[in-house]
Amino acid sequence: MTATVEKDTIRSEAKPRSVRKYSADISAMGEPFLWGLGGALAFGIILIVGFLALIFWNGFTTFWPKPIEVVTITDGTRVAGEPFRSEQYRPGPEILSGLTDDQRAEIVADEGFVGRTLYRTGNYDVTGEDFRWVSNFQVTDRAYPKDFFFFERQEWGAFVGTIASIDLNGRKLSLEELTLPGLEAEQEAARDRFDEVHHIERTDIGNVNHEINELRLDLRRAALRHGEGSPEYQELQQSNEARIAELQKDYLALANQARAIKEEDRKYRITLQTVNGEEKEIAISQIVRFYAANDLSFFEKVGVYLSRWGEFVSEEPREANTEGGILPAIFGTVVMTMLMVIIVAPFGVITALYLREYAKQGRLVTIVRISVNNLAGVPSIVYGVFGVGFFAYMLGGSIDALFYPERLPSPTFGTGGILWSALTLALLTVPVVIVATEEALSAVPRSMREGSLACGASKWQTIKWIVLPRAMPGVMTGLILAMARGAGEVAPLMLIGVVKLAPELPIDGFFPYVHLERSFMHLGFHIFDVGFQSRNSEAGKPMVFVTTLLLIGLIVLMNSSAIYVRNRLKKKFAGSQF
Amino acid sequence: MSDTATLSPTSGIGSGKGQANGGRPALPTGETNYHFVTSPEGSVIDVDKFNLWYGSAQALYDISLSFQKGLVTALIGPSGCGKSTLLRSLNRMNDLIDNLSIDGNVTIGGHDIYGPGVDVIALRKRMGMVFQKPNPFAMSIYDNVVYPLRVDGISDRRVLDETCERALRGSALWDEVKDRLKESALGMSGGQQQRLCIARAIASDPEVLLMDEPCSALDPIATAKIEELIDELRGHYTMIIVTHNMQQAGRVSDNTAFMYLGRLIEYGKTETIFTAPQVPQTRDYVTGRFG
Ligand SMILES: Nc1ncnc2c1ncn2[C@@H]1O[C@H](COP(=O)(O)OP(=O)(O)OP(=O)(O)O)[C@@H](O)[C@H]1O
Ligand SMILES: [Mg+2]
Questions:
Q1: Checking DSSP bridges between strand B255-260 and strand B72-76, what pairing results, if any?
Q2: What is the pLDDT of residue A303?
């Protein structure tokens, strides 16, 4: 008790502590280095963040409905469209000479620069252009009329204009008579008819065609195996012909059904009018989506935005990939990447196991290891060339000759396909998996191996039960890296199986359900195709960003699921310290 | 732990005093004291003129000694003198090391363990080993204990359960963990982990138990428990224990071998080694006057 009292008195009497100040020479504290390192880090982060921000901003705003601007030009014509982007340019003398003195003076005041805006005017079928530049000095009037609509059409791209009249099975109406909700209901009904026709043509008739084709192939197989004169062949031919006749009847019935719907559909029409008065009549079912761009509430805009995203991730592309969705590309990317992981995981792990655990550590192993590491530096297009030459032509060619002779000369496996793509990418990414696995194996403490061996376990038992589980998180890290690399790789795929437009998905309802020989669509290639290979690169640009966003999102999704699994594995080994 | 041993813990002592080599052929004498306690069942492991090189560096020189069945033998000596090396030579754990060469013989039950065609795995199954640092596997406590049985391909639940309980009781761990057998072994304390490793080592009922400083990472209470355990297991297993703790060696062992710079200096009854060593180096070491 006394002690505490004493302490307290001491404390109360003590002077307030003064903090001692000290400093050191900057270089002694390594500050310049720190600044350098910090600067480098900041630079890297700015680059990455800037890049991501660009993609995110463009990717997320593309589908937001923009207003339609109607500008009147000095020559009296009008331009209606979504303002797409603006820039400054320096007009040439031939343009300047055609201007009034006032306009010229204004340009000179701006040091010779003029602003101009690119409008997405649509109406390619009427005017022959999708986009149009309008210089600021040309503009005499700007308006945002509420009766202008933005139509997304099944064909010919967008249409910007007003609705002149509507023809519902002979009943001519104006928009006021039908009202907007009425037109929306008609459009939905028309889309349902369109989807039904599409379903009949693609799925039902597709099934019939598939079966007919299979029967023909059966017959050819029989011909190759037994000869055309053999009784087996004759018998098969007869039964097949009967079945084919039946199928052809089915086909006709389905085709008639589709034709009937189409005929009915053709009676529901709409006449659209451009800003300059040209008219265009189309079937209502041709309209994928339409909205009065200048008369939308916030929630309606959100609705359009979400419906566009929905279409984008769940539909097939149209209009040379610049419109519609990219479901086949998403699907192809995911299936190919999964396939690649399934192939690369055992290959990489077995190789690393052999190199680290079984091979005698000598010069040969060192050479192998160096070669494996250097493989990672080979340009990926070289892998593509190898894939085509070795996998598709040699392996695939032999497989065709052995198992699919009836389909020759058209190749089955003897050309690019999803399996060969996955194998090629597996080859490309296997060094990453090997290096990561070797690292993980060598990080397994020797005491663990010794503990197991001392229990009388064989080397393989030790590896299987002790070493591999322990190395699994490291292996997962390798697979994650491989997956990210593989999913983003495009160059080799262009040679070995990726196509602009794949008619069928690699997985579908036809036996054997997984078609590894099929070519497929890929997000990375889609970006290249839409952005740089399409007729209308202006229209493709926003799609580049959206697709990139989606590809990044997909990789993040696949990686984070792998990381989740890895962390769960890691947890098992946590707490081994004491 | 059922007390079915055929050997009473002290049966060899007394009779062994002064009865050199237990009737075995004479081993080289020189400065070595061979008045060790013998077991009526004779020796299990005989090391004969054993030399070992790590690369070109010799770690063991002409080691000759015999480990008596059912008794506890302590290996003592300053750090780096080759105790671990000798211990690991007995179950061929050193096979993992590259560039290792040996000379001389190690026989277990009369069979040369370095002979051609020896089944190393079968050999290791006859010996349990406990390491200096506990090394439980990242599995449940149960799976850790029955690991040697799983290795043998035994999957009969009843056998595994019985073995698990017997081994855990044997290592004085049963009461502490019987309610959490399915939990990860990595969540145990260091002392518990070490006793778990002992349980694992005795699970397959080996003939010999090799222990390399089993208590070096443990607190006095855990150490006492393990010493108690060794005392209980005496007679059931032939035990060889490496230790730096003189008191421990004195408490638990029947015979003690003192090694120095890769050589066996003195081997004899523990009491003798600690009270009346014949070699001055041994005396200096056990009395702590070692330079
Ligand atoms: N893997 C190895 N490679 C090369 N030399 C080794 C190896 N292991 C041990 N040695 C050497 O062999 C000698 C004996 O080592 P050992 O581990 O047997 O000593 P120890 O008596 O167990 O020592 P401690 O009491 O410190 O554990 C030492 O000189 C050591 O440097
Ligand atoms: Mg040691």
A1: parallel
A2: 93
Q: Do B147 and A448 touch (CB under 8 A)?
A: no
The answer to whether A228 and A171 are in contact (CB under 8 A) is no
Q: Which helix (H) or strand (E) holds A541?
A: helix A537-573
Q: Ligand 1 centre and the CA of A230: distance in Å?
A: 81
Query: A548 CB contacts (<8 Å, ≥6 apart)?
Result: A55, A59, A527
CA–CA separation, B87 vs B120, rounded Å?
A: 15
Question: Closest partner residue to B131 among A450, A573, A574, by Cβ?
Answer: A450
Q: Which ligand is nearest to the CA of B80?
A: 1
SS3 A145: coil
The type of residue at A544 is: V
Q: Are B63 and B240 in contact (CB under 8 A)?
A: no
Ligand 1 pocket, residue B257 CB under 6 Å: no
Residue found by looking up tokens 């145990």 in the block: B188
What is the b/e burial string over A348-366, where b = at least 16 CB atoms within 10 angstroms of the residue's CB? bbebbbebbbeeeeeeeee
Q: Measure B211 CA to ligand 1 centroid, in angstroms.
A: 16
B79 CB within 6 A, ligand 1: yes
Per-10-residue mean pLDDT of chain A, 578 residues long, equals: 46 62 67 81 94 92 91 88 88 78 79 87 86 87 90 88 88 84 90 90 86 83 79 82 88 91 90 90 90 90 93 82 83 91 93 89 89 86 90 85 76 82 92 92 90 91 91 90 87 86 77 79 87 75 87 88 87 59
Least confident of A326-335, B253-262, B279-288: B279-288
Find residue A87's DSSP bridge partners.
A116
Please, what are the domains in chain B? 30-126+208-291 (3.40.50.300), 136-205 (no CATH)
ipTM over 0.95: no
Q: How far apart are CA A377 and CA A370, in angstroms?
A: 11
For ligand 1, say whether the CB of B133 is within 6 Å of any of its atoms.
no
Q: What are phi and psi of A86, to 5 degrees?
A: -125, 155
Distance CA B1, CA B11 (A): 20
CB of A569 closer than 8 Å to CB of A471: no
CA–CA gap between residue A118 and residue A106 (Å, rounded): 21
Euclidean distance between the first and the last CA atom of chain A, given in angstroms as a whole number: 40
| CB-based contact B221:B198 (threshold 8 Å) | no
